[in-house]
TrEMBL record:
Residues 9-126 form the YopX protein domain. InterPro entries: CHP16711 (IPR010024), YopX-like_C (IPR023385), YopX_protein (IPR019096). This is Phage uncharacterized protein TIGR01671. Residues 138-150 have a biased composition (Basic and acidic residues). Residues 128-150 are annotated as: Disordered. The lineage of its organism: Bacteria, Bacillati, Bacillota, Bacilli, Bacillales. Coiled coil: none annotated. It comes from Salibacterium qingdaonense.
Length: 150
């Protein structure tokens, strides 16, 4: 059985609190104040001596017997009574694939990598833009403004 451990994202101070930062009495307050403290439960899985918590962002590979391995990035989410990897905080789907069960990914991927978490590193889940394409999200508005100024 895994130990029951938590980290908390303190929304008032924008900082992560670990077990060393709070007492047993404070734990009860933190678990009940969902507006200020966002709980992050320990999954029971360690990767490269790093504990994996709910809200962590992970790179992983799904291996195929025909060598059609696929690279993914996802956020650890507790849903359906288990820890899963979702494409984003809002969406569990990777195209036609649904969420991946974290324990299954851990067992079949020896290169699982924790990159950060959704509170301190939300940019890790953002879609990367091709530099040879039309540009980033704000570029279209800038081009329209330049065209109307002419």
């Amino acid at each position: 059985m895994r130990p029951l451990k938590f980290k908390f994202w303190d929304t008032d101070y924008a900082e992560m609190l670990t077990e060393d930062d709070y007492s047993a009495e404070e734990l009860g307050v933190m678990l009940s104040d969902h507006e200020r403290y966002v709980p992050r439960q320990y999954t029971g899985i360690d990767e490269d001596d790093k504990e994996i918590y709910e809200g962590d962002i992970i790179d992983f590979t799904v291996f195929d017997i025909e060598d059609n391995d696929t690279q993914y990035r996802g956020v650890v989410t507790f849903a359906g009574g288990m820890f899963q990897l979702w494409k984003s905080v809002e969406s569990e789907f990777y195209g036609s694939d649904g969420p991946f069960e974290l324990y299954w990914v851990h067992l079949q991927d020896d290169e699982l990598k924790v990159l950060g978490n959704i509170h301190e590193n939300p940019e890790l889940l953002e879609v990367e833009h091709d530099t040879n394409s039309a540009g980033g999200p704000g570029d279209h508005e800038e081009k329209r403004a330049a065209e109307t100024a002419l």
